[in-house]
Amino acid sequence: MRTVGVEEELLLVDPESGEPQALSAAVLAHAEREEEEQDVFEKELHDQMLEFATHPQSGMAELGDEIVRCRKEAARHARETGCAVAALATSPLPVSPAVGMNRRYRWMAENYGIATREQLVMGCHVHVSVESDEEGVAVVDRVRPWLSVLAALSANSPFWMGRDSGYSSYRSRVWQRWPSAGPTELFHSPERYHRRVADMVATGTILDEGMIYFPRGGGEPAGRGGGARRGAGGPQREPAAAGRLAGRPFRSDG
């Protein structure tokens, strides 16, 4: 039986003005004081973001209940830290993104420059398990004709830095700046998929396999297979559907 998990990135904002607030460290510290929730919330690329992840679920009712609970807990932790959470793909208001300073994010900032600094985009990622490498590659190869349809159905990020961007999904334009984002040629086999990933890592194009974001229509990284929670293997924003490829994530975003 397939399992499904969800990760959702939320924007931390001032509850009065709606301006993004770089308070993720404070919100996470508040959440970590409640031991049972230590594996639910996690820091993201920018300090204005908060992410939660569900357990893998085989029933959609159970998954829906967990998403609602996680959203409520995220809102509570934010409120008790002096901010609020907003389910947005991009901030409608001007913002100066603050990149988190762990090793991974420092590498990204040093190697991708402004593309990293401006990557303040949020997503709701739906992770669907696959049975094998072969099935995973078959999904990657066959989803390409549907990417534009998924992007059109899920688009809801018209604003960028306080202005109307002229796009229904400006998030998709920002996301395409990553060198490992966007549709690829057909792989046909797991061997060709793995070879492409290995080549990108070996040449320093990406830091590691976790930065493989293809194929995509307009979303964020998804990855981690049939469940979103770390160690476990109707969104408001551009959704992602993902599977696991022999323990390595591949992504397909709408």
- Count helical runs: 8
**How many domains comprise the coordinates?**
1
C-alpha Rg (nearest Å): 17 Å
Shape label:
globular
Features:
254 residues, 9 strands, 17% strand, disordered C terminus
What does this structure look like?
This protein has one domain: Creatine Kinase, Chain A, domain 2 (2-Layer Sandwich). The protein has helices at residues 24-32, 60-79, 103-112, 114-117, 133-143, 147-154, 170-175, 190-202, and strands at residues 4-13, 41-43, 49-53, 84-86, 124-128, 159-160, 163-164, 239-245, 248-253. The model is unreliable at 216-254 (pLDDT under 50). 32% of the residues lie in helices and 17% in strands. The chain is an alpha+beta fold and 254 residues long. The protein is built from eight helices and nine strands. Strand 8 (239-245) and strand 9 form a beta hairpin.
Question: Nutshell version of this structure?
Answer:
The chain is of the alpha+beta class and 254 residues long. The chain has helices at residues 24-32, 60-79, 103-112, 114-117, 133-143, 147-154, 170-175, 190-202, and strands at residues 4-13, 41-43, 49-53, 84-86, 124-128, 159-160, 163-164, 239-245, 248-253.
